[in-house]
Amino acid sequence: MAKIHHGAGYTRTEDYLVCKAFIAASKDPFVGTAQKGKDFRKKIHEKYRELLSQQSHLDRLNYSLVTADARLLILEPVIY
Question: What is the DSSP letter of 30?
Fold first, then answer.
């Protein structure tokens, strides 16, 4: 489940999404290696927020598809 974590580190899902965002930003074919650090960080952040939103949507969808008994065993997704 995607969840914004405001503590010392990231959740496992957040770690994964940050890595995906970094890779996506670093492989931008239109900018390549010529992008400035500030622009690169902004691009990572934007991609991360996009991926987090997609993950949240998938979590809510998956939660809605399980049985009532299964819902007792898992946390309800956090809505941002």
Answer: T
Check if the beta carbon of residue 80 is closer than 8 Å to that of residue 51. no
**Residue 56 CB neighbour total at 10 angstroms:** 19
Query: pLDDT band at residue 76, thresholds of 50, 70 and 90?
Result: low
Q: Please, where are the H alpha helices in 9-36?
A: 12-26
Instruction: State the first-to-last Cα distance of the chain, in angstroms, to the nearest integer.
Output: 12
pLDDT tens string 65-75: 888 888 777 76
72-77 contact pairs (CB < 8 A, 24+): 74/1, 75/1, 77/1, 77/2
Which residues, 6+ apart, have CB-to-CB distance to 7 below 8 Å?
Answer: none
Instruction: Note every long-range contact of 72-76, with CB atoms under 8 Å and residues 24 or more positions apart, other chains counting.
Output: 74/1, 75/1
